[in-house]
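Narrative summary of target 7.
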Amino acid sequence: MLTYVFPGQGSQYKRMGGTLFDDFKELAAQADDILGYSIKQLCMEDPSAHLNQTQFTQPALFVVNALTYLKRLRDTGKKPDFVAGHSLGEYNALFAADAFDFATGLKLVRKRGELMSLATGGGMAAVIGLNAEQIVEVLTKNSLSSIDVANYNTPSQIVISGLKEDIERARPIFEAISDVKKFAFLNVSGAFHSRYMRAAKQEFETYLQRFHFSPLSIPVISNVYARPYRQERLKQTLVEQITSSIKWEESIRFLMGRGEMAFEEIGPGIVLTTLIKKIQKEAEPLFTVDEPESRDIPSSPNDTAFSYPSISATSLGSAEFRADYNLTYAYLAGGMYRGIASQEMVVKLARAGMMGFFGTGGLNLQQIEDGIRYIHSNILPSQAYGVNLVYNLKNPDMENRTIDLFIQTGCRNLEAAAFLSVTAPLIRFHARGLTTDAGGNVISRHKIIAKVSRPEVAEAFLSPAPEYMLQSLLKENKITLAEADLSRKIPVADDICVEADSAGHTDSGVASTLMPAMIRLRDEMMEKYQYAKKVRIGSAGGIGTPEAAMAAFMLGADFILTGSINQCTVEAGTSDKVKNLLQQMNVQDTDYAPAGDTFESGSRIQVLRKGVFFPARANKLHDLYRRYNSLNEIDKSTLTQIQEKYFKRSIEQVYEEVKAYYPAQEIEKAEKNPKHKMALIFRWYFAYSTRLALSGSEESIVDYQVHCGPALGAFNQWVKSSELENWRNRHVDEIGKKLMIETAALMNNKIRSLFLSST
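Modeled conformation, tokenized:
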């Protein structure tokens, strides 16, 4: 098989093109008309020294690459099996695959070059000698999170991109590392293929909408995904390329994995040829399983073909959402508390193009910091992750300190869970670093995805930050005037995740009822406040099978979030004994119990019932609390049962542990108020039952508290009799991909059957 590769910026040189301009006079003249200057003179003579300026370089390279391809096509009479291009060269690959004609391609790269040339203050540098993981480790350890990886050229040649002063600051750090063979600044005006090109990206996206693209005749390997382009996402992928990393190494490895493959560079120079040789020497082929694709659907018995956009795992959900978080799949995994959503889980998902939230609830600050630093050292800056923050009604100071830690460690994505309203720490996190692009649109560096199950809570997150909170934060010098002003123009949450019946805190909502209501509320709030950027609505709760995921997307979900199914995986931060129990459950094996953190209010959580007594015992304790004003009012036999069966120790012993845990003012309150003392002692059981489960203690398996929804029961039935029946074969990234791939296949089949049944 044969792949043509097209070079990008950096391959240009004076006198490139040679006789091509005379061989293709009509196209050269067409280029002159479009550009307003002589393309031949620019490439052959460059009298004004413009050739190395981005706005001239990109059109010049496109023309020379295109004419070189046409000459090769004329000489050989055959097309390649695959095409790929490096950055700008990808437009030539698309031209070769008949996505657009010569004139359209030239207009696109002219605009692209103009917009990219406007970027100033940025810089790029090639680091030779370190691999991608080592680059990330250096950036993380030296607080250089403002630098992105722009190009993965070979296993040992990585290009970084960022503000010029940051790139200059990075130079001595890298040069001090013995394995670094070279640190070379690139002759560019901007931080290309990084977050700093967002303004160019947005304007180019608008410009792109005026053009029509034809079906691809040859597979084109995308820089963004290192996989073949999807026709339905062609424009969006081109837009994403401006701010995304160029995955050249992975693209070549993917092509190597297709079989015996020859590569030919079509255009000036041998830059790509050299890179490919290094990749072939240093890396192994990448073997992948192709996702199922749908075929054209006949629209009538006469076999008149009716084609529709093929749905793929990577096209499900909102393309804008995927682009904003740099995701391959619109798939998130929720932050299960006490590190059950572990650092290892988050890393696995990030590397697979999904996003997981580190479960910080119930962890101390040092544990949270250690987890975040582990994540940073094991993923690339371009890979997405988030942190979970659970509403802490009784300890707002902990919420404040946790937000401080998130900001200090460079966490950009926050999952706000179980909040009854917005809080000042959330406002502060979201306001930090707010800025605007060239068009005046607010750019949020710290994103919040709010998990909600009640419309009034969703409305609070869909509203701008409350003015009194902004004024208080300003008075305390916790935000700037500029950040306060920009906070008034955007909602508190960037995105909303609608949580239906699920594990942990739940209002027993039904997705088919909640989703339409929340989408309408979002639309109303968008209209009311005239937000420039759309708030995306995701779906969570009950998603454990392709059928459930399909229902979520059909209800309008821009993304889905799973939870319970991830708790029964290798990466989950809970005990093997819990995973053994979870593997056996079915859809009916959950129950509701009081939540330990809000015991007095009676709010409920969904937990595992099969194989444990926890839900029955927890409900019994809450019933006693509701009926009596003190422990002294409870009959002796009941107290004996609680101490012997539930606590496995005396109430006095429990109270000693309570006193060692709670602050003095809480204990003082308990001494004065017998009912409050009873609440603290009963709440001890909830912490105890959680510790038992997480540690896998043999002390009392029947008292394990395991938050879980029925989605896991459905998942268990789906994978029954397959290798995934055993949790030791379950990995979060593989589950996520399998779920998305089979959801796409199911949707294609359903659409096909609907059309066929109507003929």
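The longest strand covers residues 122-128.
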